[in-house]
Amino acid sequence: MATVKHSKSSTIPVTPQETFRSLNSMVESHLDPVGLTTPLLHAQLAWLSHPQELSEALTVLAMKMWDFQTHAWNRAMGMPSDDVETPHPDDTRFVDPVWTDSATWDITKEWYLTLTHHVQNMIYDTPGLSTKEKRKAAFWWRKWLNAMAPTNFFATNPVAQRLAMDSRGESLIRGMRNFLQDIEAGTVRMTSPDDFQVGKNLATTPGKVVFRNRLLEVIHYAPTQAKVHSVPLVIVTPWINKFYVLDLNPKKSMVKYLLDQGLDVFITSWKNPTAEYHDVSFDDYIVEGIGAAIDVACKLSGATQVNAVGYCIGGAALATYMAWANRHYGERKVPVESATFLTTLVDYHHPGDIEVFLDEGTIEWLSRSMEEQGYLDGQQMASAFRLLRSNSLIWHYVVHGYLYGEAPAPFDVLYWNMDTTRMPAAMHSWYLRQFYVDNNLIKPDALVVAGEPINLERIVQPIYAVSAEDDHIAPWRQAFRIANYVEGEKRFVLSSSGHILGIVNPVVHPPKREYWVGAARRHDTADTWKKAASHHAGSWWEDWMVWLKPLSGELRAAPPVADAIFTALADAPGTYVLER
C-alpha cells in the first residue's frame, strides 16, 4: 500500500480507490461545483464496463435509425410516412405545421427526436449506477440535448427564417435588440419589467404595515365585509420570493378572496437581506419572523389563536414552528388553531429535480460563496429553478425573443418570478444541509430549533395540505408525506397545474382546473389516498373555505386595521417588498 507523508509523525494510507475519490471530490468542489460532468462521466464508464448491455442498447438504436432512414426516404420521395418519434406531450417546440408539412424539416425534427429520446432512455437504464446518479446524469444530458435542439438556431429553425423573410429582416433586428437588453439585464427576460409596478398594478389590496422588525413586515389587510371571523388568518410566505404572488391582481388575488369570505387576514413580507444579515439564523426566522407575526395578529385582533397558512418553504418553516410551539408552550395553549400547508415538503428524501444541485460538493461550494458575500443571491436560485424546466423557461424565450424578434409579453406571474430576493448565509446553509441533505426535519428530535428539539409528531392541530399535480419544486407525492408525520386530523388536496398556478387558482366559471380531495391518514400512501379521494372541477379554494370557516370563530364587527399599539407604519404592500 502506498503512503503519503502528512507530518513528521504520521502517514495517510492511499489506495487507488481513495485516490480516485479524492480527485473526484476535488473536481466536484472546485472545477465542477454543481456536479455537471461527474455523473455524465460515471454514466459513460458504467456503459463501457457493461458491454453486453451496451451492445443491446446500440442494437435498439440501429433498429430505430433504420426506421428513420426508411421514413426519411419516403418523405424525400413525397410518399406518406408515419413519424418514427413524436414529441412528448409537453414539448411545444415543433408545433408549427412546417415541422410536419415540409419533408426537409420533418426529417430534421425526426433525426433530433430519435437520437435524443434514445439517449435519454439509455441514461435512465444505465447499468451499475445508483438511482440518484442516473437522475443526475439524465438531467444534465437532457439540458445539453435541449440546448442543441434545431429550434434554437436560426439556420435550423424554419419559423425564424420565414419570419425574417416576411419582415425583410426586421424580426432579426428586433431579436438583436432583445438580446442586447437581456445582456444589460443579466438574464433572459420572461416579461418586461416596465409592464408592472408593485403597489400600482400588482399587490393592490388595501391594508397597512402594522409591525416591522429586522426580518419582516406584517401587513394587516382592510376587511371587505362588515363582519369578519374572530380567529385571524396569518399567511407565512416563502422568503425565497416576494409575498405578492398571493396578491397579484384583484382577479387572481388569494388575499382578496379570503377577505371577501369574511376572514381577517395578515401576511408576512420578508426583508431582502444584505451582507449585514450574514449571521441571521433559521431560529431567528422562526421566532422573530413567524412567532412575531402570530403574536401581532393575536394582539391586534384580540384573539388567543390564529389559523396559519404556509406556502413552500414558508410551509416548512410553519411546520417547524408548529412542532416547536407544541413543545415550547407545554400545557399552555399553542397560539395556532389550525395549519394549512401549500406545496410544502417536510420529507426531503426525493425532493424532485432540484436534487441534482444538492449533493455534498454543491452545498460546500454554495456555502463558500455565501460565506464570502454574506448571502445567496436570488438570481442564482432563480437560475437553478429555471434550469429545471429549461425548454419552457429559458429556450422558449431565447427562440421567441432572439430568433423571432418578439417582445416578452406582460405576465404578472413571470414578473414576480423575476423579482428575486436574497437569503442570509447562515440561515440558508443550515436549511440546505439540515433539510435537503440530512433530511432531519422528519427525524424525531434530530433538530434543536430555538432551544427546543423538533418532532413533527407533536403537531396535533387540524391540517389542510395542498399539492400540485405538475409541481417540479415540491413533487406532490413527496408533499403528501406530511400526512405520514403529523398527528392531527388531515385533509389533503391535489390540484391540477404546477407550483404557482396550482395555488394561485381563483374560482372562475366555467372552471379552468380540477382537484382531488379527501381525508389522509398516517398509513396512507399518495397513490392509495388518490384512489379514495373525490374528484371535482374548479378551484380547491371553495373546499378550503368549507374546512376553514368552522375553525375561524364567530362573526363579529371587523377590528381596526391598526390601533394605538400597532400603528400604521406604511400602506400595503409596505417597504420591504420594494427592496432590490
Let me know the average pLDDT: 91
Helix share bin: 40-55%
What would the CATH topology of the domain at 209-347 and 451-578 be?
Rossmann fold
Through-space gap between termini: 57 Å
Spatial order of strands in the largest sheet: 17-16-15-14-9-8-6-7-4-3-19
Structural class: alpha/beta
The CATH H-level homologous superfamily of the domain at 209-347 and 451-578: Alpha/Beta hydrolase fold, catalytic domain
Major sheet details: 11 strands, mixed
Task: Compute the number of helices.
Answer: 19
Q: What is the second-level CATH architecture of the domain at 209-347 and 451-578?
A: 3-Layer(aba) Sandwich
- Evaluate the radius of gyration: 27 Å
Keywords:
single chain; about 575 residues; alpha/beta; Rossmann fold; two-stranded antiparallel sheet; 19 helices; about 15% strand
How does this model look, in words?
It is a single chain. It contains 19 helices and 19 strands. It has helices spanning 16-31, 37-48, 51-76, 98-101, 103-124, 131-147, 158-166, 170-185, 254-260, 282-301, 313-328, 360-373, 378-388, 390-403, 412-418, 425-437, 476-479, 526-532, 541-548; strands at 2-5, 11-14, 207-212, 216-221, 227-229, 233-236, 265-270, 306-311, 336-342, 375-376, 423-424, 447-449, 452-454, 463-468, 490-495, 514-520, 534-537, 555-557, 570-571. Strand 6 (233-236), helix 9 and strand 7 (265-270) form a beta-alpha-beta unit. The termini are far apart.
Report a brief summary of the structure.
It is built from 19 helices and 19 strands. By secondary structure, it is of the alpha/beta class.
